[in-house]
Specification:
Layout lengths: L2 H19 L5 E8 L4 E7 L10 E3 L4 H9 L4 E3 L2 H7 L3 H6 L4 E8 L5 E9 L6 H13 L1 H9 L16
Antiparallel strand pairs: 1-2, 1-6, 2-3, 4-5, 5-6
Length: about 170
């Protein structure tokens, strides 16, 4: 594990701790937006066995999700399992972890570019629009260190890109 990984993990752990207090979270991941490949690389998760760090997922999963989070730079809420299933192909695994709702919050740098996305998942029905506001407040409180954490991982093409996953 590199020094960058250790430092960024500490940042993501702090965010996870805050998110566990409110709005609540069972599964938390930090995903770096890689515009060159239109993909997301997982930099951190509290469930590494199910969602390995370093894996990438393409955002072809849902044009609605992509439009909201990446293009419009707004949070996304799927408050119930039906809404979650419309967007995520791994909804079975998500359910096995006890989750049925998701909030995705884009992390924007000083130029309003999306540098990453935080994914919070909890039991179905636990997230509301107020939960989204709370998650955005947590991100805003930690914005500078989040931007630095994402920036610590270069996004340019690399020769050894991990295999893409569907999670």
């Amino acid at each position: 594990m590199s020094t960058n990984d250790i430092q960024t993990d500490a940042v993501f752990h702090r965010i996870l701790d805050d998110m566990q207090h409110a709005p609540g979270v069972i599964l938390f991941t930090a995903l770096q937006w890689i515009p060159q490949r239109s993909s997301l690389r997982r930099l951190f998760t509290n469930h590494p066995n199910e969602y390995p760090v370093g894996a990438e997922k393409t955002v072809e999963i849902s044009p609605g999700w992509l439009g909201t989070v990446i293009e419009d730079k707004k949070p996304f809420l799927a408050a119930d399992l039906a809404a979650l299933q419309e967007v995520f192909t791994d909804s079975e695994l998500i359910q096995q972890l006890g989750c049925g709702a998701v909030i995705n919050v884009p992390v924007l740098d000083e130029h309003r570019n999306v540098v990453g996305v935080l994914a919070l998942l909890d039991a179905e029905g636990n997230y509301t629009h107020h939960s989204v506001e709370t998650a955005v407040e947590v991100v805003n409180r930690h914005l500078a260190e989040l931007v630095r954490a994402f920036a610590a991982h270069p996004t340019e093409e690399v020769h050894n890109v991990p295999a893409k996953d569907l999670t």
